[in-house]
Every structure is written in structure tokens, then in C-alpha cells.
Amino acid sequence: MTGDSEMPRNVALVADRISWEERELIKAAPDFGLHIEWVNDESLCLGHPDAPSVRDYDALLLRSRSYTRGGLIATLAEAAGVPVLNSARAVHACENKAVLRTVLRTAGVPVPEFRLALSRKDFTKALEELELPLVLKPVYGGMGKRVTLIRHADTAQSVYDYVEDLGHAFEQACLVEPYLGGGTSVRCLVVGHELVGAAEFASGGTDWRNNAALGNSSRAVAHDPDVLKIIDGVVGELGAGIYGVDLFGTPDGYVVNEVNHAPGFRAVASATGADIPSAVARYLQELNA
Known about the structure:
Elements: E1 9-15, H1 20-28, E2 34-40, H2 52-55, E3 59-62, H3 69-79, E4 84-85, H4 88-95, H5 97-106, E5 115-117, H6 120-129, E6 134-138, E7 148-150, H7 153-166, E8 174-178, E9 184-192, E10 194-202, E11 217-220, H8 225-238, E12 241-250, E13 253-260, H9 266-272, H10 276-287
Parallel strand pairs: 1-2, 1-3, 3-4
Antiparallel strand pairs: 5-8, 6-7, 6-8, 9-10, 9-12, 10-11, 12-13
Helix pairs in contact: 1-10, 3-4, 6-7
């Protein structure tokens, strides 16, 4: 906490829009000597070496949901000497599922088996090498959108027609991977080096996808030692920051499905009771100390 006489540290919350998470972060900030204000990620016009639009702030908290804006803004803000959460390296890795999987796997963090499909030839070969059911997902994207479960070989090529005919440029880059988790996944909310809360999400109704953004059911889960080991591996490779680490359970243990650099955390907070906005504000306070 800080005394009333101290000037609050200014933090730019860089995002394309304000949702529940952003409102809660702004509300929690004064208790930790911070003033957080929303800055639209389309309004910075970065590129000048002195970057006056970001040098007015003590730190940038990136919450952009764009597939590309976060990494670009982080790179230029860091070059201007402004502390950024998360780092440009971490954001660039998280924005691209193929890069993230490769970085983590190289560091010894368990990830699902996958194939990169940039063409129908790639996709067909992936079908030959991996066993059904399989999941086809875009390299760039989130919130469960355009993630498709392929149960039968005789429909697979028809599914890929939509990627080939309707996808534009980077949207045609996809991953093919085994269907894991049996309809459940675990979202771990990390702040700094610490696992603040973990919740299991289960698919419901007719939608097989288990994603908090889709309104699936959730429950708190214990901080399993195996989960903590994986979190340590993720943070050790990407650096301390604010992450939503999504895990699938397998017979051989958990694997990292995705790491979100601007995670939604309302569902985890609701399921676990964790005060995530305060944890983030406290970490920002320490960052600027």
C-alpha cells in the first residue's frame, strides 16, 4: 500500500476495449499506489525514438486481444525504455501457437504432439501420421474460435475446404493435434512467478470445446505439484508476467495447450475466490518500486 501523500504511479492499460477484467484492474489500482487508465491500442502511433505517447507512463499493461498488436506495441514500448507486461518476447511467442509450442518443447515443457498445416498437402500428411479424433485450430486466434473437432476421416477434407477457401493469408496457418482432455481443461492464472488460481473448465451442451469464453462450467482445482512444475517451466522460459496457462490432462500427465498473454480471468476468480486484480496490481507496484 502507499500513503496519501505519495504520487500514484501511472500505468497505461493498453487494450482494444474495456471488459470486466479491465474494470476490476482499474478499480483495484489505487489501493496499491497506482493510477491505471485505459489507452486504446489503436491510438499510440508508436515509432518515434522517444515515443512520447508511452514515455508518459511508468509501465504498460498489455491487454490487447488482437493477434498481432500486443507484440508490436510491446517491442516499440520496450525500445522507448518503458517497462511492459508482458515482455515483447513473451507476447510474440504467445500470439503464435506454433512458435509457443516449439519454444516450450525445446525448453522441456510438455506440449501436445502437433503438426503445422500450411497447405492441403500438409493437412493430408498430418491425417496420415496422427490418429483420429483430431483437432484443427488456427495458429493465430483465441477464445475457441475456428477450433474444429474432426472425428471421421471421410469428413476431414471437407472441413479443410473452409480453411482453404475462406481463410485469408495468416488464417490458413493451422495446427493439427490429437483431441485431448476428454472435454476438460485446466486454466492456470499466473502473476509474476506465482500460480494465483487454477480452475477446471468442462464443455457443456452440444459444444465440445472447453473454453471460459464460451461460458462452460468451471470448478476450482488444487495446486498440484505437477502443475506447479509446469508453471515454473513456462515462466522460466517466457519470463515472469501475467499469463493464462491452459493445460490438458493425458495418461502421462499434463501438457500445455496454450499460454494467453492477455488472459481473461473472471471465470477463474469466480471459481476459486482468488483476488486476481489485487495480485496484478501488487505485481505492478513491485515492478515500479
